[in-house]
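Work Package 4 report. The design task specified in the project plan requires that, given a folded chain encoded as structure tokens, an amino acid be chosen for each position. We show below one input record used in the internal validation round.
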């Protein structure tokens, strides 16, 4: 069984890669030229260079493959040129699935995000059927992933593309080399850069459980269906409290109103537009934090046999990994 993975050198992708390699599968990884490949250390696999924005490179990558895990995405809450994110997340996804379908790939697992799903105003967990429109998407990342998912549905209907969609919630754990925005929360906290917080909530899941969910979607998922791969609903205050207890630190006690943080985030973005360095807080992230981003994995549990360990296990492993790697 020849399997192609995009984003195999990234956070979620590297977790999926390890499971596939350990299961004895023949894996090919599509990566961008010059990309960070530290997550490949100690792993033997075929690496091919390409770019989601280059259809010719995608056509070469899918040749001879039986299964595709499309995990790569541009996941940033701020960037100087948003168009590049749409080119990668929307057009790139369409290019790849078209190439894979034409090449006769048997099954495609597309990694979307809970960012594409609706949020209940009453604080109850959302599921795959919670109503949502593109107008509800806050920020370019969420909007691009929503539009990408819509393109996937079009290809399922128009080309009979054999796609199963998975929607991870908020993965946390080891090998977060960038790190992701959530990993940055953990890192900033253990490095004493989190003096205050806002009132929000996230669904925290260990990245290795998300990876197992990907394989279950391949084995048992139905074409055209999507499955939330989540864990535990936790307030940000609970997340920070656990991190601080783990590190024998005093948790932050200052809860800032969202409307107070918004102008601070705006100012950080103005500085970022000059330095070209991603700000620690963005207007979009503050706007998103006004809602409790809680989700239910009941469908994946019932139909795929999905299971997740307690969310704090992901936090614990993330802390240990950042400390082991001496992240500043």
């Amino acid at each position: 069984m020849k399997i192609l993975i995009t984003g195999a050198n990234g956070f979620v992708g590297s977790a999926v890669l390890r499971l596939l390699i350990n299961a004895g599968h023949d894996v090919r990884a599509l990566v961008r030229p010059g990309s960070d490949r530290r997550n490949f250390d100690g792993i033997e696999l075929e690496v091919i260079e390409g770019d989601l924005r280059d259809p010719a490179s995608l056509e070469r990558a899918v040749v001879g493959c039986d299964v595709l895990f499309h995990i790569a995405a541009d996941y940033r809450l701020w960037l100087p040129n948003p168009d590049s994110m749409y080119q990668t997340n929307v057009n790139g996804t369409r290019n790849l699935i078209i190439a894979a379908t034409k090449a006769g790939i048997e099954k495609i697992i597309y990694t979307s995000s809970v960012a594409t799903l609706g949020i209940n105003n009453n604080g109850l967990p959302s599921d795959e059927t919670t109503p949502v429109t593109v107008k509800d998407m806050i920020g370019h990342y969420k909007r691009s992933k929503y539009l990408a998912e819509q393109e996937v549905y079009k290809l399922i209907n128009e080309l009979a593309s054999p796609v199963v969609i998975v929607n991870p919630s908020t993965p946390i754990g080891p090998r977060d080399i960038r790190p992701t925005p959530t990993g940055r929360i953990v890192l900033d906290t253990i490095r004493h850069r989190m003096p205050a917080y806002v009132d929000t909530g996230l669904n925290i899941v260990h990245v290795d459980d998300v990876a197992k969910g990907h394989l279950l979607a391949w084995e048992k998922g139905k074409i055209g269906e999507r499955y939330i791969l989540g864990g535990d609903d936790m307030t940000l205050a609970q997340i920070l409290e656990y991190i601080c207890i783990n590190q024998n630190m005093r948790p932050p006690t200052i809860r800032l109103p969202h409307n107070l943080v918004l102008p601070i985030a705006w100012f950080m973005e103005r500085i970022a537009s000059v330095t070209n360095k991603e700000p620690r807080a963005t207007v979009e992230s503050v706007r998103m934090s006004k809602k409790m981003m809680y989700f239910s994995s009941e469908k994946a549990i019932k139909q795929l046999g999905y299971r997740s360990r307690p969310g704090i296990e992901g936090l614990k492993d993330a802390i240990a990994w950042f400390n082991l790697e001496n992240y500043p």
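The radius of gyration is 19 Å. Validation will be extended to a larger panel in the next phase.
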